[in-house]
Design brief:
Strand order of the largest sheet: 2-1-10-9-11-12-13-14
Strand content: 25-35%
Shape: globular
Largest sheet: 8 strands, mixed
Radius of gyration: 23 Å
Distance between the termini: 50 Å
CATH topology of the largest domain: Rossmann fold
């Protein structure tokens, strides 16, 4: 299915139903469709042609979705851009993807517009409401995306086939410079389909998008799935703990996605947390990391719900992968689930190329029709990422006796010291139990004698910073001695991707000097 056809279908099924909510701004599916057709005309008049790339660099605003569907209606490709990037990063990304037209939030400003001088920028001013004024209103010739859309004529568009390129998704870059994942309309539509079945989503769902919508999962798993089902997308411009609770209560949100910290943070940051009515939510969905059993129990108690779902996936796959259902959250805490979600095949492959059995560790491989076409202009990286139809995730997983898979580490994060394999995530899990540690990341430093040595980057708590000797003594009864860090680096915070993953290559580079 072409993504424009997905919107068409929602209009036919639920034309007068609320499709999009942002503060006091609201669109029915019929109104959203008309606005998208005007946006397509604006983009066409700005020079966008079928096959061209449109970069969109905004917060979670209506302009993002209107520009995205407008681009697809015009037969073009969407390139979501992280609104937190600096000018040099924006410039490199735009040059890499070849975009010549872009929509940017006015709050981002010169960080974007100073990049790539040959790109035309349309400025999104979120307080304006695109599409609400009629085409017969006085023409506005400014660079305001919303004003131009409001005064444009609807256009039938130039959409193509579902095998055309819909998106170029740039990876979060945990292992280095981000790569562009090229996805077709069909692949993204299937991602929405498989996600909808997994949770499952319903046509009466009101889905809150609090995590950055330019990220793969909020966009394709949750926004696109909501359109696929004919539900309502509710946007929070930027995540903030109290703001999330307020929107859930006001809009009677039924499904919420976030990193684990998005649900844990309100318990600390909002003293009157218990005063909010969150009873409308039937699906609390988290990804980008697991929850331990104690954290899961704490969340269930605080939120008054056992309906927590974990999802695991990769941008290269749509993203799709696996899921851990509500009834598995405690007994299988830390696991990503058993096998793949509907429409996805998952296996764990050992070093000798055979499928892992209970107790064994190997690389997680995924297979689905949602898979990317490849990395943009990088045949070598694409070839390394696949083995036939299987995508090699780079994640190491261990299978338990019931077939559930637990992420052990990233392959590039495995530390080999004195011939022994050390899982950085295992060491981090132990260190998180220390009373003076708020956050931690473990990496390897090259060592002439041992190959690598274990280094812990620690964010200390308010009670004082641990010492290396004290930490080693505390860990002695908890973990094998060769796994205990030999170096301790105290930091105020850890570098992270927008999805919350620690960028360990940055820490390794810091050690290298």
């Amino acid at each position: 299915m072409h993504l424009s056809a997905m919107l068409d279908s929602a209009v036919r099924k639920a034309g007068d139903k609320e499709a999009l909510v942002h503060g006091e701004q609201r669109w029915s599916y019929r109104e959203l469709d008309a606005t998208v057709r005007r946006a397509a005309a604006v983009l066409r008049d700005a020079g966008l042609r079928p096959g061209d790339r449109l970069a969109v660099m905004t917060y979670n605003s209506p302009a993002f979705l209107i520009a995205a569907f407008g681009a697809w209606h015009a037969g073009a490709t969407l390139v979501p851009v992280n609104h937190k990037l600096q000018t040099s990063e924006v410039d490199r990304l735009l040059r890499h993807c070849g975009a010549r037209l872009a929509v940017v939030d006015e709050a981002v400003g010169a960080r974007a517009t100073d990049a790539a001088a040959d790109v035309r920028w349309l400025i999104s001013r979120p307080d304006e409401t695109p599409g609400k004024a009629g085409p017969d209103a006085d023409a506005d010739t400014s660079d305001s995306f919303e004003a131009l859309v409001a005064h444009a004529e609807e256009w039938e568009g130039a959409r193509g086939a579902d095998t055309d390129i819909a998106q170029i998704l740039y990876t979060s870059g945990t292992s280095g410079r981000p790569k562009g994942c090229v996805h077709t309309h069909r692949g993204i539509a299937l991602t929405a389909t498989y996600t909808s079945v997994t949770v499952p989503l319903r046509r009466d769902d009101r889905t809150l998008i609090s995590m950055p919508i330019w990220h793969a999962s909020p966009l394709n798993n949750w926004a696109m799935s909501t359109v696929f089902m004919g539900g309502t997308i509710v946007l929070q411009r930027e995540y903030e703990p109290r703001g999330m609770l307020e929107i859930i209560q006001k809009e009677r949100v039924t499904a919420v996605f976030g990193a684990p910290i998005a649900f844990l943070a309100p318990l600390r940051a909002v003293p009157d947390f218990a005063a909010y009515d969150l009873s409308s939510v039937r699906a609390w969905i988290y990804g980008a990391g697991p929850l331990d059993a104690d954290s899961a129990r704490r969340l269930m108690s605080a939120y008054g719900s056992t309906n927590f779902h974990q999802v695991y996936g990769m941008s290269e796959m749509g993203p799709v992968g696996s899921s851990l259902s509500p009834d598995e959250q405690i007994d299988k805490a830390g696991s990503i689930g058993r096998g793949g979600m509907p429409g996805v095949d998952l296996r764990v492959v050992t070093m000798d190329g055979t499928d892992a059995t209970a107790g064994q560790t190997g690389e997680i491989w995924l297979r689905s029709d949602t898979r990317m076409v490849g990395y943009l202009d990088d045949e070598e990286a694409t070839a390394k990422a696949f083995d036939g139809d299987w995508y090699r995730s780079g994640d190491l997983g261990r299978i338990d006796k019931d077939g559930f898979v637990t992420i052990v580490d990233r392959m590039q994060d495995l530390i080999i010291t004195g011939g022994e394999n050390v899982s950085s995530q295992e060491v981090e899990g132990v260190l998180r139990g220390h009373p003076d540690i708020v956050d931690v990341a473990v990496v390897g430093r090259p060592h002439a004698q041992w190959g690598e040595t274990v280094v812990a980057f620690v964010v200390p708590g308010d009670g004082g910073a641990p010492t290396l000797d004290g930490l080693r003594e505390w860990m002695e009864p908890l973990i094998a001695r060769y796994k205990i860090p030999r170096e301790l680096v105290l930091v105020t915070q850890l570098p992270r991707t927008p999805s919350g993953k620690v960028t360990k290559h940055v820490l390794r580079a810091e050690l290298a000097g």
